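Table S5 (text form). Sequence records supplied for joint modeling of the two-component complex.
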Amino acid sequence: MNKLLLVLALLISLPAAAKDDVLHLYNWNNYMSDETIKRFETFCKCKVKQTYYSDNDELLAKLQAGAKGYDVLVPTMSAVEALIKRNALLPLDHAQLPNLKNVMPVYANTPFDPDNKFSVPYAMSITLLGYNDQKLKELGVAVDSWATLFDPAILAKIKGKVTVLDSQRELIAAALKYQGYSVNETDEAKLKEARDIILKAKPYWAAFNASSYIKELTVGNIWLAHGYSNDMFQANTDAHAAKRPFSIVPALPKEGAVLALDAMVIHKSAPRPDLAHKFLNFMLDGKNAADLTNMIGSGNPNADALRYIKPEIKAIKAVFPDTETARKLEMIKDLNSKQLRYVTRMWTEIKLR
Amino acid sequence: MSAAWRASLQRFLITGPPLVYLLLFFGIPTLIMVLASLRLPGEFGGLAPLWETGPSGTELNLSLESYGRFFSDSLYAWLFFKSFLYALVTAVACLLLAYPLALLIARSPGKRRDLLVLLVILPFWSNFLIRVYAWMIILGPESVLTRTLNALLAGLGIAPVELLFTPFAVLVGLVYVHLPFMVLPLFANLEKHDPALLDAAQDLGARSWQRFWRVTFPLSLPGVLAGAALVFIPALGIFAIPDILGGTDSILIGNVIKQQFLDARDWPFGSVLSMVLTALAVAFAAAAAWVASRQRL
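The corresponding structure-token record, covering 650 residues in total, follows.
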């Protein structure tokens, strides 16, 4: 009976075997331009089959449940670390990745994956504030600090026009940064301080929102949103396309913020590690690496890509910060289960009160 | 082959496949959840190994700890109570809206009745999320509805209101999504009523309200209960609608279960919450079935 179940489970979890040359890419939605894919398909004389996930936890949960058949994944560094610890990744063969030298030193060899044994940086976003320049100028609200999101005295002017990310780690990280702590603080007293800051500001916010704040900013329903730099770029592009009388401006708070670096990794059970290595090296080429930034305004960890990036995007300081500002950015680390349980309990309390 | 044997074979061929299906895809996952609720969370998500061999020998990694956490923290009881209230208000609102509609459909002539039933089913042809997103536009601060309402309120000297991202928006979404599940069983029941009963009641001097309250409504109770169960139980566990339409305080039990499995990667505690939810849903379904069976006597 057990064997029968095992066979059944295997049959269900294995997608169609790769008969032809197919690379299975499990990626964020809208995270690679069609031209890049086509260029690679011509280059390798193969097909790329993309499937999508919408957050790291979804990716981790799916792989944990035994999903197989993916060659390349694009997790954020904290999830890369979790995958390494679970022994779910294939060590990279650096001899097949000569373009690895293009990665800027600040983004290579991070504590999440020393010496880039498993991952190559692909793109990044910063969690910051995006605002409606017309409305906030009228009201005289400056956006240069997390105080705009957390200080009730400032929030009183924009009550009900603010959304924050529906993500426990991101929002608590912002409150911790506002207090001058690390985004990875696990001290319970400091976390409680962050919780109290959030609870005091919460009555002024319209919603916890991780999916529709781009649209709400674009149409002018929301004037200040806590969100990802890529999304603010999208909101601004949409607002201009719709000929709105305002822009959506990304603002990097002076206290620092969360940096999310997404990297490409090869899954341990990848059907085609050969194609996967080819793909990783291809994506490290400056021209291919620049495509995504030109498409969605993402930050770019590739030094060689800079010369291919549109000048108006390179000029956005919040996405391409100077070295001093960049030093205040922090990546979120994975918590152990006890810490995570504490934070989750706190988050449930925050949302229920 | 005896006739009795053949009859039982026939019965098995008809009822067997759905039973096997339920056993495989409802029974086994539920058992997995029961077991998961007793296990310990893994360090990086998932579950800790069931057996662990330490210096003191092999130990079985089972514990009631997650249940203990649930019962020692009033936060979760409050969450269930809040979800219960939302589901109850949804079921009552659906009933009040669906009853007249179902009555109208049941008493329409043949062709028009088919058309009306089709119209009730029509929303299912488009994706559930898209329909809920549409409510974001309808309830948004710049929408015609909100602006008209606020213009009317201003005329009465009342401050403007927000509709989107409020508990009201969540209830609107819940009622909208579940309404067909109330209309259809009610219609199926009302359609079968013998019109002669109402004629008889009228002949005996019952006014229209009495005819409804003493004849139609008692006869329709099984439909009411079926509809109430079909609305109440899914509404109790839903998470997409509060996520999309809710504000900063619209979290329900479904959201917390999702959060335990995804954000917190605490499968045992998520399983405990699911178990309690399942137990409550089964209890309500059993209560509805019991009341319905008593009505029939």
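Note: Residues 258 and 330 of chain A are 5 Å apart (CA to CA).
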